[in-house]
TrEMBL record:
Keyword Coiled coil: yes
Gene Ontology biological process: regulation of cell shape
Chain ranges passing through the membrane: none
Coiled coil spans: 38-89
NCBIfam families documented for this protein: mreC (TIGR00219)
Family: Belongs to the MreC family.
CC terms in the record's Gene Ontology section: plasma membrane
Organism superkingdom: Bacteria
Residues covered by the Rod shape-determining protein MreC beta-barrel core domain: 99-245
Listed name of the protein: Cell shape-determining protein MreC
Source taxonomy: Bacteria, Pseudomonadati, Aquificota, Aquificia, Aquificales
Amino acid sequence: MGVVGILYLTTYLKTPFLDIFSPFFKISSSTFEFITDNLSYLKSKKDLEEENKLLKKQVQILNLEKIKARQLEVENEALKKALNFVGEKQLKDFVIAKVIAFSPDNWINSIILNVGEKDGVKEGDLVIQDGYLIGILWKVGKYSSFILTVADKDFKITARTRKTGEIVYYQGYNQYYGILKYARPEQDIRISDIIETAGMNETSLNGIPIGIIRDISLEEGRFFKEIKIRHFFNPYKLDYLIVLKNKEIR
């Protein structure tokens, strides 16, 4: 058999061979493509998951930064109000304090500040927020102090009516109201008048608003009027406070 014959025979045998195994070649090729595609998919999925985790972390960081920024805005606003009051009253002997805790057994009436003896404050110093009296320093430690608020029944202070200048005696009663004690029938005390601090030698400690008169009554046979005061103290909105040093107790 010549060379031509051999080539012819080889070609002849190759053709059916390819015809027989062609489906297997196609299957192998398809399987390879399937595996390759799935590996690519798994890799893409993993990349997406990693990207998702990274994006979530970035969102959390941004949210925390927003919260911190908002807290700073609130603190700055509170400090501005405190300093405005200091400027208006031309106060010289005061301390800016921050609320750090509430007493667990009486959280509305007893508030803890971050100032103490080291800051020169003493028991009896007045505590102010937004221009209103909210209490006095009750217990003073080296680094912190308790406030006795105007809402507490143990809180008592000499005061006066702003419009008529009548001297009265304010006492705390509850979370919303206080009362005026020993108000005589002949005293000119009116509903909606402001009750403010009075009777102190130091001018800057007088005229600080405590609350507003909401109700007046006089029962037959009673020696004194019953007067209800809506105090300005808001226990749910406390941050930075002013402690006015009372020279009368020094």
